[in-house]
Each structure stands twice: as structure tokens, then as C-alpha cells.
């Protein structure tokens, strides 16, 4: 342990009364934001809002929760009211934009923000949303319940929760494998596409082995630019089973 004189420049943040109140409220609801974002992503709401805006070339189209709910497979009469509250929360974190009309009742309309670029599909169908959904999946949420235990007693939280190693779990549950592979693929494609714009190191490579290459997204991106490379994707059998064949590999 190290003690510092209090007049030294040690960073001990001071909170204003308003900030204290904000932290107090935020601490009660720490899980609410990720769970709301998870539901909104699973319901494809950000894609619906983006499509609404894309349909108008010169105007920003803002949609009410009723407009959006009309495109969901539901007859729940409360759905729009629920969605409105969820989107209002996301708007307060700038994940969606919101305009408020005050008529006989308050009407909120929602539109895109720069976050949509990451959280909705790009021209290749890739989105950071899949990585976000993976992180919020029950498999990891239940592992998180064991953090206190592993700090005090040692071990690995994921294994405490599921009785097996993470990659064994991924191989056991095909729907989780699909989510995992898509999340890896979207994330790697996103960074790889940027990397190979400037990195020249693959020019003289003839054979490239990707160890733990998943469904081959990284190799595929590299080989699509450096077509002379022979690619070898090395991964567990359950990953290779769903990996598409790629020209040059
Ligand atoms: C974090 S993922 C990376 C996926 C891939 N590189 C990508 O960017 O899409 C790690 C990969 O390692 C694989 N893996 C884990 N243990 C392995 C092993 N013993 N031998 C080969 N691959 C393994 C997993 O199946 C998984 O696909």
C-alpha cells in the first residue's frame, strides 16, 4: 500500500450534488441500458428506423413508437408504449435521436444517430451489433454472476456457470456457435477491411495459416485482395463445419 499527501495532485474526483444524484439513479439501473439495447437490437428496431430514413433522400424521417411497432410481428396493444419508453432511454444515451412534439399529449419521434453506422448492417451485412449481442448473451451474463466467487476462491467464471470451457460450450450449443461466429466475423471484417487498405505485409506471402480462424472471415478478406495467397484455416471441427469454402483456401 502507498499513502499520498492529500495536497498532492492525486486524482480523487469530486462529484457535484447533481452528479451524485445521477450516479445514485444510474447505479440502481446499471443493467437496464444493456438489456434495453439487447431487446432493441433483437427486434431489429434500429434497422427499421434506418430504413425509414433511407426512404427519404433529402429529409430526416423521424418515427414514433407506433410507426415502428406497426412493422413488428405483434398484436400486443402495449407494445408501442413499451417501445417508446425503451427508445427514450436509448435517446438519453444518444444511441437514437429524439424530437418531442407537445400537442394534447407528448409525442416522441425517433431517428438515427452516428451510432447507427456501427449498430446496423453495412454494405457487407456486417455490424458491431452482433458483438454487442454476444457480450449480453445469457451465457456471459450467467458467467458474470460468479465473479465474486472466483475473486475469493479462484477459477474461471464461465466454467463455474456452465461446467465446461468456453470453446466446449460454443461447440455444444449450435445457436450460440452461430452468434459467436457471426460476431467474430463482423468484428474481424470491420477491422481487417481498414487494415488492408494500408498494411502491405501480405504482398509477398504465399501460404497463410489462420490459427483459430473461425469461419474464415479474416482469411477471406485478405485473399480477396491478395488472390495469389493459398489460405489455410485451422479451427475446431464445429467451426470448420459451418465455414463456407473460399476461393484460394
Ligand atoms: C476469438 S475467436 C477468433 C475467430 C477468428 N479469428 C475471427 O476473427 O473471426 C477464437 C477461435 O479460436 C478457435 N479455437 C479455440 N480453441 C482452438 C484450438 N484448440 N484449436 C483451433 N482453434 C481453436 C475457436 O473455435 C474460435 O473460432
TrEMBL record:
Record flagged with keyword S-adenosyl-L-methionine: yes
Database matches in SUPFAM superfamilies: S-adenosyl-L-methionine-dependent methyltransferases, Winged helix' DNA-binding domain
Residue ranges of every copy of the O-methyltransferase C-terminal domain listed in the record: 145-245
One Pfam family of this chain: Dimerisation
GO biological process: methylation
GO terms assigned for molecular function: O-methyltransferase activity; protein dimerization activity
Domain of life: Eukaryota
O-methyltransferase dimerisation domain sequence ranges: 31-121
Keywords: Methyltransferase, S-adenosyl-L-methionine, Transferase
InterPro entries found in the cross-reference section: COMT-like, COMT_C, COMT_dimerisation, SAM-dependent_MTases_sf, WH-like_DNA-bd_sf, WH_DNA-bd_sf
Name assigned to this protein: Uncharacterized protein
Species, as recorded: Rhynchospora breviuscula
Amino acid at each position: 500500500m502507498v499513502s499520498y499527501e492529500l495536497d498532492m495532485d492525486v486524482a480523487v474526483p469530486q462529484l457535484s450534488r447533481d452528479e451524485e444524484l445521477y450516479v445514485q439513479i444510474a447505479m440502481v439501473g446499471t443493467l437496464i441500458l444493456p438489456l434495453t439495447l439487447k431487446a432493441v437490437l433483437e427486434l431489429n428496431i434500429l434497422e427499421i428506423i434506418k430504413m425509414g430514413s433511407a426512404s427519404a433522400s433529402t429529409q430526416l424521417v423521424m418515427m414514433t413508437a407506433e410507426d415502428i411497432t406497426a412493422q413488428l410481428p405483434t398484436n400486443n396493444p402495449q407494445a408501442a408504449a413499451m417501445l417508446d419508453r425503451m427508445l427514450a432511454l436509448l435517446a438519453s444515451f444518444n444511441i437514437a435521436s429524439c424530437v418531442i412534439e407537445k400537442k394534447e399529449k407528448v409525442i416522441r419521434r425517433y431517428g438515427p444517430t452516428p451510432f447507427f453506422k456501427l449498430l446496423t448492417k453495412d454494405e457487407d451485412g456486417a455490424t458491431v451489433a452482433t458483438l454487442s449481442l454476444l457480450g449480453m448473451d445469457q451465457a456471459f451474463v450467467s458467467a458474470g454472476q460468479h465473479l465474486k466467487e472466483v475473486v475469493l476462491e479462484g477459477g474461471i467464471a464461465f466454467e463455474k456457470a456452465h461446467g465446461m470451457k468456453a470453446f466446449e460450450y460454443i461447440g455444444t450449443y449450435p445457436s450460440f456457435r452461430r452468434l459467436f461466429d457471426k460476431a467474430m466475423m463482423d468484428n474481424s471484417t470491420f477491422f481487417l477491411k481498414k487494415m488492408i487498405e494500408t498494411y502491405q505485409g501480405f504482398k509477398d506471402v504465399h501460404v497463410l495459416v489462420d490459427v483459430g480462424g473461425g469461419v474464415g472471415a479474416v482469411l477471406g478478406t485478405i485473399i480477396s485482395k491478395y488472390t495469389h495467397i493459398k489460405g489455410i484455416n485451422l479451427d475446431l471441427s464445429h467451426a470448420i463445419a459451418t465455414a463456407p469454402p473460399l476461393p484460394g483456401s
